[in-house]
Automatic annotation (TrEMBL):
The keyword Kinase does not apply. It is found in: Cell membrane. GO terms for molecular function: flavin adenine dinucleotide binding. Keywords: CBS domain, Cell membrane, Membrane, Repeat, Transport. Residues 35-96 form the CBS domain. It holds the Pfam family CorC_HlyC. This is Membrane protein. InterPro entries: CBS_dom, CBS_dom_sf, FAD-bd_PCMH-like_sf, FAD-bd_PCMH_sub2, Transptr-assoc_dom. SMART domains: CorC_HlyC. It comes from the Bacteria.
Length: 200
């Protein structure tokens, strides 16, 4: 939403809010109490990695890009950033689903087999790995729920954080090496009844 022109942004209206108003037979007029949310605005000088960090911090899926003259030059979505960073995975080897951002962090496709993650990150074993096949499955197993963005698990000296969800499926993870592996507590593992138990 803009005030007079596109360069004076007020905010945005979530489609879910509009749908709820339709279902409740409420007015769709923007001056009738429709919630206007703050828009994430980023400079056009950000790198893709910096844009990804902005999305994580703000918890938003899209952003408006402004140049040095405070003029809107476009929009960018989280999916745009992830697609560009990950590249086209069709026809590529499974290990190419793991892309190093730097020496201590990786972007990992949620469908990456656990064996590939173990090999790239030098992890000897994942807990109770007979219950899942992919890194996305590992996250769901450990969290014991349908994951959402920013959910995370710490394991074997790494933090596994959900950064993108596609129709309840974990699309992308950000894996970060922790400073001191010896200080990472053992994860609480679910037992056969679904209760959490210590890995120690």
């Amino acid at each position: 939403m803009c005030n007079e022109d596109i360069d004076h942004i007020i905010g945005y209206v979530d489609s879910k809010d509009l749908l709820n108003r339709v279902l409740a037979n409420q007015s769709m007029a923007l001056n009738s109490g429709v919630q206007i949310r703050n828009t994430l605005i980023v400079p056009d000088t950000l790198t893709l990695s910096e844009a990804l960090e902005s999305f994580k911090t703000a918890g938003e899926d899209f952003a408006v890009i402004m140049n040095e003259y405070a003029l809107v030059v476009g929009i960018i979505t989280l999916n745009d950033v992830m697609t560009t960073l990950m590249g086209d995975l069709v026809g590529q080897g499974l290990e190419e689903q793991i892309v190093a951002r730097d020496e201590n962090s990786w972007l990992v496709d949620g469908g990456t087999p656990i064996d590939d993650v173990m090999r790239v990150l030098d992890i000897d074993e994942f807990p109770q790995s007979g219950n899942y096949e992919t890194i996305g499955g590992f996250m769901m197993f450990m969290l014991r729920k349908i994951p959402k963005r920013t959910d995370s698990v710490k394991f074997s000296g790494y933090k596994f954080e959900v950064v993108d969800i596609d129709n309840y499926r974990i699309d992308q993870l950000l894996v970060t090496r922790l400073d001191n592996k010896s200080n990472v507590p053992a994860p609480k593992l679910p037992d056969a009844q679904g209760k959490e138990d210590s890995a120690a």
